[in-house]
Specification:
486 residues, alpha+beta, six-stranded mixed sheet, five-stranded mixed sheet, 17 helices, 18% strand
């Protein structure tokens, strides 16, 4: 397309500027742009060090780590209140507060993104979790400003209405998720006493008002304590400076509240509990959960080996050969420090009663297969598990996640994977075969079955013995609640 460049005439200049004062200026300088990208000197310690005293309102852990050659760091802060889980109403308030905080902090996020930094604020069943990451040179300023904004946060009624409507819509749309995902969510709600109960949450959220959330936010902020991990290109002095920025702004004076304990329901010995989930879908689902009662590395090693032994043959027999469904999985799982095993199927060709019969037939044949397994085949499988547990971190933030997981699990030595790896190395084939026969015995299984009957299998549902229709029924049948203090 033809074009030309020429100077503006005097008349054109006058027309463009008549009655207008052009206000033009450069944007303000970005305070988060790093000025110092050098790497701190000194070796990386094997594990983080606790820098705070016992009983401090902020428990501080630090690991100086420049081994990845990047001038970056991560700070994770777990904020605890006395007990934000006292009721479903409080859990709904935490979820809405999380959304409103994230919404209010969007403008603050822009200059951080331009400077290669970011943060997240998320609600937990114990309070709030903050994460900040990026160039270490601007991390202290970022934490101070982020904490100040959270401390000064006020509930905006208009934004409250928008975020509440979005939350309710998302919670309602959970009913459109894949059946296998809905079954696993029902399992989670059954196993954890403080799990988010979706239907009740929708009802509570619809009745909640801005003043209710504001009162909750004030109560939450008035009684916070925290645990903080700083990891990366940061010295101990810098980590303490970051902790001070958070503590001075967010944490009140006085006696800090203890962190609410982790709580998990246990499966009673020798019982099979069935939870029926109503899902409007043509497919059926089956989720079979076994749970161990020991919490040490050897207990987890046994369940981990068993899950690996069942993984491939379970998929081969039920998915490839029997073609029961496109989602077929068997794997080791964990309920905080309690180990377990999960077998899941979503099927369009068979109902959950039939699926369970096939699962039990598979287990009945697989136990002797484990007993007859060639020693060298077992050794190879066991070595593969150990290699995965000892796999080296390839990124700074991947190591950060592993350190945070150790703190969450209550492993101050930060060596949980290594403890389990050593336990795996010490378990021979005969030991795991005897263990499999003990925990998977079809005549007395200790397990939770979560199932849904697809519309294609309504006839099977009519013949089936009914299970629990809600979590209250499941909770009444489960065993004692296992707790762990943080």
């Amino acid at each position: 397309m033809p074009y030309a460049i020429r100077p503006l005439t005097d008349e054109e200049k006058a027309a463009f500027t008549a009655g207008t004062e052009l206000q033009m200026a450069l944007p303000p300088s970005n305070p988060y742009l790093p000025q110092d990208t050098s790497l701190v000197e000194g070796d990386t310690a094997p594990v983080p060090t606790r820098l705070s005293d016992d009983g401090a309102r902020l428990e501080l852990w630090h690991l100086q780590d420049a081994s990845f050659g990047v001038p970056r760091a991560l700070a994770q802060i777990e904020l605890w209140s006395a007990d934000p889980r006292a009721s479903t109403r409080d859990r709904v308030a935490v979820a809405l507060l999380d959304r409103l905080l994230d919404d209010a902090l969007q403008e603050f996020r822009y200059p951080l993104g331009q400077a290669g930094m970011d943060f997240s604020v998320s609600g937990t069943d114990r309070g709030l979790e903050l994460r900040a990451w990026g160039y270490d040179d601007g991390l202290t300023r970022m934490l101070r400003d982020l904490s100040a904004r959270i401390a000064a946060f006020e509930v905006d009624p208009a934004r409250f209405e928008i975020q509440r409507a979005r939350a309710v819509r998302e919670w309602q749309n959970v009913a459109q998720d894949w059946p296998i995902d809905q079954a696993r969510r029902a399992e989670y709600e059954a196993m954890y006493p403080y799990a988010f109960q979706r239907e009740e949450a929708i009802r509570i959220a619809k009745a909640m008002r801005p003043r209710d959330l504001a009162a909750f936010a004030d109560r939450l902020r008035d009684g916070l304590s925290a645990r903080m991990l700083v990891h990366g290109n940061v010295t101990a002095a810098q980590a303490q400076e970051m902790a001070a920025a958070v503590q001075e702004t967010l944490l009140a004076k006085g006696t800090p509240p203890a962190a609410p304990p982790v709580a998990v329901r246990t499966l009673p010995e020798g019982k099979q509990i069935v939870r029926d989930v109503a899902i409007d879908h043509t497919d059926s689902t089956l989720d079979v959960v076994y749970q161990g009662h020991g919490t040490d590395p050897v207990d987890h090693a046994k369940w981990m080996i068993l899950g690996q032994l069942l993984d491939t043959p379970f998929f081969t027999q039920l998915r490839t050969e029997q073609q029961l469904g496109y989602t077929v999985q068997a794997y080791y799982t964990r309920f905080d420090r309690l180990p377990g095993l999960r077998m899941s199927i979503q099927s369009g060709v068979a109902g959950p009663v039939t699926l369970l019969q096939r699962v039990d037939a598979f287990l009945d044949g697989e136990i002797p297969a484990i007993e007859q397994m060639a020693p060298e085949e077992y050794t190879t499988l066991r070595s593969g598990i150990v290699a995965r547990l000892r796999e080296k971190d390839t990124q700074l933030y991947r190591r950060s996640d592993r350190l945070i997981e150790s703190l969450d699990l209550g492993v101050p030595g930060f060596d949980w994977d290594e403890q389990v790896a050593q336990a795996v190395e010490g378990i021979d084939r005969d030991t795991i075969a005897a263990f499999a026969r003990e925990v998977l015995a079809p005549d007395g299984p200790t397990r939770l079955i979560v199932r849904s009957f697809g519309t294609n299998h309504a006839d099977e549902q009519q013949r089936a013995v009914r299970g629990c229709r809600d979590n209250a029924c499941v909770a009444s049948k489960l065993g004692q609640v296992w707790t762990r203090e943080l």
